[in-house]
Batch of 2 targets.
Target 1
Amino acid sequence: MSIPLSYPLMLAAALFGIGLYGALSQRNAIRILMGIELMLNAVNINLVAFAYYLEGAAAAGQVFALFIMTVSAAEVALALAIILLLAKREKHIDIEQVNLLRW
Amino acid sequence: MVELAWLIPLLPLVAAVVIAFLGKRLPGQGDRIGIAAISMAFVLSVGVLVGVMNGGTAAGSVTWAIHGDLVLRMGWEVGGIGAVMLVVVTLVSLMVHVFSLEYMKGDVRYQRYYGVLSLFTFSMLGLVLADNLLLLFIFWELVGLCSFLLIGHWYEDLDNVRAANKAFLTTRVGDVGMFIGIMLLFSQAGSFRFDEIAAAVAAGDVAGWALAAGAILLFAGAVGKSAQFPLHVWLPDAMAGPTPASALIHAATMVAAGVYLVARAFGIFEPSDAAMSVVAWIGAITALFAATIGVVMEDIKRVLAYSTISQLGFMVAALGVGGYTAAMFHLMTHAFFKALLFLASGSVIHATGTQNMHEMGGLFKKLPITGWTWLIGAGALIGIPPLSGFFSKEEILIDAYAANPAIFWVLVAAAALTAFYTTRATYLTFFGAPRDRAAYEKAHEGGMVMTYPLIILGALAAVTGFLAGPFADLVYYGHPHRAEFNTFVFGVATVVWVAGVLLALAIYKFNLVSRRRLIQAFYPIWMLLKRRYYIDDLYNLVFVRGTIGLAMVMAWIDRTIVDGIVNGVAWATRKLSGFIGEFDLGVVDGAVNGIAGAFVVGSRLFRRVQTGLFQSYALVLFLGLVAGLVILVIGG
């Protein structure tokens, strides 16, 4: 049996929408970060799904998914470090009140 | 000894420098230094004269400037005429130096007086020794400067300052012509040296017009310096200076420099008939003209001044008729007897404190030495044989008679007037009743330093006439020439001087004719003479007033037109600047400000976009992506 391609794509689209909503709507930096991670994972699902369904693109899709996981791990580590410093400095992590880099 | 002639001018120069810088610390403010230097110069000059009489000549020169092929040398040379002049200048200068010891005693600027006297002697000796026109011109101006300084010696009095300026400026008029003449001759002959120019003239290298013009222009300098008509006006005023200085500068030496110049450059004058005629007539006119004014002057020094002008006219006229030797001989005798007359008048002024002859009278008893020496000088001036003036004037008259009878008769008339005014001055000063009793009572003869120079010059004025023979062998142009005795000339000259003397005595001593009646009878002429032919007034009107008037016109032009233009330009510039300023403020600054303002407005507008909230950026990013995808899908 096989699951049609549209299923994982819809899952990925839903996941991406949830992630995007989280990233754009939340004021807590950690939550935003979580939203971004969701979006990244939605992309990963897309890649793996296409790798599975498209002949000849299998290896490239899986390798790309692995790369994204690595990069996102690094990104999260960096982002968490920034958020940690922000929390230390401002005693909060409310992104709307952080304007340190604003003009 | 002749080779040492160059030392002669240097001695007074050293004295002048020493007196100028150290005079205050020296005994007698340095007067003895000046006298010592001039004494040595005199001894040397006599040595040079003896050497030259034995056939010696000497010259020397140094390179002054090199311009391409032209090598300009400045040098000295001494021949017969130069040696005689050296002795005359140093001798008269020495007498004046000594005489001044008492005359100038206690003067406010005693040191300066002696310094300038030495400087003058240096300049005059340099002028005599110069072997070229340029160097002569330099010394020529130097003697003019010394003359200026001595005329204005008592410069507290504005009249003396005016007289000094008048002398300086009037002679400068001639000097400008002289300089042009020098340059003209240089451009033609390619040399400043007298002998080389004369050689070029003789070889025909100088165009006829250039020769005549050059000679006449040179003569213009002589006219100024020797106070010939029409530039004579400065000399009578120059009497404002100390009397001994007048004796040296304005009687014996400097004023004779013009005559010397013509004689020295005779090789330029002699070949040009036009120049010779000009010289002869200027001299003759001056001789007569100045003598007529001398008749009415009341100031003893002014009588002598006009007499000097007249006698210089005799010399110039003699040169004009070719009487080279006669002119130079008269220059020498005149230097002695006129210096004597000036020093004697100085003695009189010293004794009485006045220069007006109408306030003198009867001084012969009080001033016997001055009186006797004056009589010798006056006799020489009149031309009474056997005094020196007789011989020299006779030579001039003989030469004039031979060359041009018209000139001769003019000179005879001048000689008659000379006899008249000299007798008049002599009688008014020394004889008759004293008119100023107080001055007469306190008048007394000066000391030895004043009387000895008078006696020495008196002796010279009496006997130098007998030197005519040796003089003619020494000073000549071309070949030795001595005027032959001429009975007719002698007769005429004797008649006129006797007539002049007798007429003067008749009027002033015997009162045969009332002077008041005479003045009334000849009032226009008397007034004309009294006002010196209105020449001074004319010059004052034309040149002084004219210059002032011209200056006023120029000032008006300057103020209204030139200043108007300047102010107009300034006004236009200001207006233009205002306009440009407006343009700058309005357009340029407006553009700049407008751009800046646009940026400000734009920034204000766009800064709203920069919320600083990354989520809004991300939203925009996402919306953009979606829009891109939509376009891709629809377009694709």
Target 2
Amino acid sequence: MSKAIIKIEDLKREFTMGTETVHALKGISFDIKEGEFVTIMGSSGSGKSTMLNILGCLDQPTSGTYEIDGVRVKDLSRNELATIRNEKIGFIFQSYNLLARTSAIENVELPLLYNSKVSTEERRKRAIEALEKVGLGERLHHTPSQLSGGQQQRVAIARSLVNNPVMILADEATGNLDTRTSYEIMSLFQELNKQGITITFVTHEPDIATFSSRTIVLKDGQVMQDYNNHNVQSAANELAKLPKQDD
Amino acid sequence: MRLLNLFKIATKAIILNKTRTLLTMLGIIIGVASVIAMLAIGEGSKESIRTSISAMGSNMITIKAGADTRGGVRQEASVMESLTLSDYEAIKAQSTLLSYSSPVVEGRGQVINGSSNWPSSIYGVNPEYLNIKVVGLQSGSMFTDAEVKTASKVAVIGQTVVDNVFPDGQDPVGQMIRFNNIPFKVIGVLEEKGENTFGQDQDDVVIAPYTTVQKRILAIDHLNQIMASAISEEEAPEAVLEVSNILRVQHKLTDSNNDDFTVRSMEELISTFSSTSEMLTILLVAVASISLLIGGIGIMNIMYVSVKERTKEIGLRMAVGGKGSDILMQFLIEAILISITGGVLGVLLGLGATVFIEKFLNWPTSVALYSIVISFAVCAVTGIFFGWYPARKASALDPITALRYE
């Protein structure tokens, strides 16, 4: 049995809006093991975004425990959270969030700039490796405006890989892409997952969930369903089934 | 290492926004350049005053009769006859800090030679006068102490007088002239000195033994002034005190009496003039500093806009591990880089402007090293001061809100 990277127990998050207290998460518990490909699903208002913020160490739970790679996140300071994000998590966003007018390689190098243990040479080397891994080895010096949406998301994926995180956290990573490109990206995720990278994918699209090995469904701040997917679809196959584009 | 990376990030941001950065810098550039140019003008005029006063004899000390009350009536200083030859002799005998001294009596009158005549001033002095005034002779010789003693009718004249009463260019030495109808034999011509700082022609003079001028021209036995020179410029203030003390004893003044004479050194004159031009410098610099301040506000403004505009970028940097302090440093370095680059360009522009002013406007200028150092330091401080608030604001952003910012 592989070890648990994420351990969540009775996690609660409350927001105070004026005099009212909103219970966004009402006691959530689950573990994510190394090498899993988990999708977290839920409609809006289900607590999905709050869950993502806490998983990404951007936010702190009100109560309960959250452990990532053996580190208890609760009670960490802002700076310590930043270090955890830098060393253990790779973020991928719906809108890519690449730096404009900045080359792909520099975008990928970004997380390593905040890690003083990585030298300039190593930073460059790792950025090139990451870009090659996502199939953009030929486009190192292109800026985001010279890349298609799918390519931009690949750069973002390379950026999330470059710091060798224990988990990649994707927030609606295919939300801005057409079906074909989404499948391409999903097949890339599956490939990376096969290489042993743990992926947590937050989405509201059910078909995306079919590509993952496990699905957690949130509703009203609680886990409604948590099941292993025994019939994982191959995104590459789905891609092949799509009608050919004439280009 | 980390700081180097932040430095790279900041440089990159500046390069990506070239035009905007340059426009922001413009405020600082103009501010620094004007501070440097203004200080150069101020320093230049101060220096030119100092050198022209020095040329008049910078360790010169002038003793004049002071205002006093006679029978309840306040008298003008010039009509006082309280300065006498015995005062001069006392000073000469007792002072230790004076190298030269001379009695001075002066009057105005007409210099006549044949059909030419010219209004001029006559100074009755002793031979040491030339040493006090730091002036030499271009021809002939100065009268001697013996000629003073015998009240000889000999004179040394300045170039302006020569030009006007010897219009056909003959050598004046050995010629006779008349001053207020008293004949004088010209025995020397003074070196040309030109105008002094106050616009007075220093060559428009006739110099004769004070005894001669007292008896034959003015018919007085008091002195108008006593002139002396201190052994050095530094000793001048001490010498002033010493002369004052000698004169107080000489005039039998008690502690309750005010001086009935004035003793002035050029040092006072220099400082009076310097303080006037210093005042001007302060004014100019104040105006220039305001433009530097406005430049600083320009930086703050643009950094503030930049932080707002790059909120999403800040959110991303935080998400991938940038700490608050990293973000703060990034924006602070950016602000400092803008202000320091602006400072360098400003110094260059200021120096250029100074050369221009000197060459084409013929104003005396002098670039003081301290003005460069100060305006440069002010620049760096401006960057930190005005960059701090926006940078602080950026670093305090919540990464979640920043990431969702549109």
